[in-house]
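Blinded run. Sample ID left blank on purpose so nobody reads anything into the name before looking at the predicted structure. Input follows.
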Amino acid sequence: MDAVFGYAPGKVILFGEHAVVYGQPAIAGTIDRGIRVAVSQKDGDGADGPLFKSHSMAMRARPDPHGEGPESLRKALGVLVDLYGERVRRLIFSAEGTIPAGAGLGSSAALSVALLRGVQRVLGEPALGGDALVERAFALERVFHGNPSGVDHTTIALGGCIAYRRAPAEGGHGGAIAERLTLPRRLRLAVAVAGSHGGTAQAVAALRERARRHQDAYQRIYQGIGELAAEGRAALEAGALAAVGELMDLNQGYLNALGVSTPAIEALCATARERGALGAKLSGAGGGGAVIALVEDDPAPVVRAFEAHGVPCFATEIVDGIGLEAA
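Blinded prediction complete.
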């Protein structure tokens, strides 16, 4: 049987990372880069389980008890077996991506959604609808991030620019509200990667410990970030890009105050603004990872400035991610 493909885009967070964990709104969007998974069936009874391999990610994995590869990926393959049954044990997954791992661009969520889309296709099952895809992607994301906010996999599963808010719920993302925004103007971005971060779960845990020592102050910061996200939504829907950029800069100030920015991130944000960006901030967990810079028109001057820093960088824009699914 020929391989079939599942694709999912990466994502950026325009407003609200970290505060979203505490019930504040966030705005995120899918970009024109992502992860593509080829899924094929192997001969035999599949007793050794499904095989995952990736040249671009430099890894192989099998689930336990024939464990091979990173623990989180082994467990994710086990979740696929739990979701779809023994048929998954005969599958081979070959993944390639155009977004770096551990950079705040949603690589694990994109992989989760791409795996699910690929499995649905190779098993001859209909494509999952939005809610069902979000639910199953959450099961995989919990393997990678423990108790994620839900913004990454929800945005990537739905595609486009998403306003997201997590309602308090035990053990999951139940009650979350996600709305796709209609944007009157294109959102063009320059993206730089200021090294890998230490992982979303670790960043959230470290921030929680700092916040425990200064609870009232941190709650005010989270609320302030939520207010910026609400203002950012209004500006996005009005096509007021200059206002969006200013609000992104304010959001970055709060993220710096939370202790999740770094000197490298701050330097890249400053460079982007000097080269004409409307606004710039980190995207994701922080402590490294992606810097996103919103531009009025051409991102090339900002990308060239990022290149002068010697960091990986590229131009992108917010896209719906759906039309690229079969790429």
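Unblinding after everyone has recorded impressions. The mean pLDDT is 88.
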